[in-house]
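Quarterly update from the structural biology core.
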Amino acid sequence: MKDRLKVGIGTDAFPPTTDGISNVAQNYASQINSKLGEAVVITPKNPNQLDYKYDYEIFRYKSWWFPSKEGYSIGWPFKDELHQAIIDMNFDILHSHAPLATSYYFRRVAEKKKIPVVLTYHTKYEYDIDRRVPTKPARDFAYNFLRNNINAADEVWVTSEGTVDSLRKIGYTGDYIVMPNGCDLPIMNVSESDIAMIKRKHNVPQGIPIFLYSGRMIWYKNIELIIDACAKLKQDGKDFRLIMLGFGADENAIKHRIVKSGLKDKVIWTGKILDRQEIQGYYGIADLLLFPSVFDTNGLVVREAAACATPSLLVRNSCAAEGITDCETGFLCFESAHSIAATLERIMDNKSLLKKVGQKAQTDIYISWDEAVQKAFDRYKIVIENFYKK
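Predicted structure, tokenized:
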């Protein structure tokens, strides 16, 4: 087995589309190309793409693009010449990061030339299917499409044990490997001067608790629970600020709900931020990350917060809370606004506890992309060996 491998990193989301899977694909490609081998990102075309900014190859295939806030393209990998283009690149292994168009693309390639394929199942796709697909025949088609793409992979990876429940709902009954994601933010304590500068920028009073939500602005991440819990805190006379960092399809509706809940003076909207150093500043200013999502399978933001010694408040038994010990490496609550509010009232003014738990999270749950991709790369070699043994 050769030490250096050529890897096709397949993803349906890549900048200018920004989400968790886009972040993962970038870090896999960057880490592999820097010291492990050669990686080529394989992703649908996007009219706003700026691929010249990356120091590795990006292969774009035909897509349909519809203007939207999130900017997703729909891959269209059906032409034979596209399949031959991948074959001609002589990949050692293909790694798809979603069971969608690009996974189907890899299936079509494998029909012509056998190349081992790994698929990482990152997100609970049944949420989107059940919410967005209006008829049962169309939902059945969507489930079958995902299941067939998953079954076609030579090895299936998940980012947490809890993700397996979603795989089973899709109908996958095979084996899997847990392969956690890393964090691209370095471990650091944001300086007091940078914290003071951000506070001045947003007119944050000294001494009050600062909460942070970071992620896509979509209702099914339980943002409504955050709003209702913060409304309860305000009714109880508590002062605080809630920073909303991110953007998404439900952003306007979320803003309307915040105003309706009487929280306009308590909430800070950062707008869309892509600069990772600037994002790290907001993690550094926060006393606590609020992330009550039960949708996310891993929760990259929890590790990003931990990089800055900022603890997270998570829903007990959620995937994002996997590996978190209550009041040691994070805080756990139940999936309700009442439980979130009660937990916040108990801990929000206890600065020493928040600091201690944040520092423990930094040492115990943080994992760098360097470590995560090295582990994945070592597994690639086992997948390839098993593939050719068969």
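The mean pLDDT is 93.
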